[in-house]
Amino acid sequence: MSEKLELTGMVLSALPMGEYDKRLVILTKERGKISGFAKGARRQNSPLLAAAKPFSFGVFECYEGRSSYNIYQAQISNYFEKLSLDLDTVYLGMYFLEFADYYTREGNDEQQMLTLLYAALRALENPKLDKRLTRYVYELRAMVINGEYPEVFCCTACGSTENLQAFSQEKNGVLCADCAAENPAEPILGSTLYTLQYVMSAPIERLFAFRVTDEVLGEFIHIQERFRKKYIERKFKTLETGLL
Ligand SMILES: [Zn+2]
Asked: pTM here?
């Protein structure tokens, strides 16, 4: 008899299996990303009917099987229902889940990714925050957590911390004025540089609560789009829809 477990986490995806069941992928605090079988989750009287859906966050009760977990009950504390109020928002939310799925593994410590995902979805639900900014902040920070990031605190060519004025995709970071004259690079606004520094280092709880001008947002998006494409070859299904 395997032992009962309580795992805290968020459903990343839910696939129908057979007539009444579901296969869930859950990002958990305790075990990293797990795959779980939710027997009978599509039956009208199932205790898992509402829980076995993407975005559901809470405590999942399960048994550990040989190759997967058997989930039999859940206490959901947040369904992120406001995300489904409009199509753009729910697609962005699905993209966040897919991005988290790409970067996480079973058995890894994925607490930071879970905390980041939760905070990013909360920010998406907040009508006062710019959804495009939320998206690129989430992307960059997720990449930082997984060890992929540009150098934004000093010149990536000479190490100087002064006169940082340009960004080089090739050298993967900022350049000082002297080095920018000798390397292909694009000028970067001081506020954009500060935004990159903030996104890479601020505590996750405060990560999404800031605003930028359209100009800074444009530069940030430009840099992050190219950065993501350079380091992640995978095509995300949610991006392929062309809706984002
Ligand atoms: Zn330099």
From this structure: 0.95
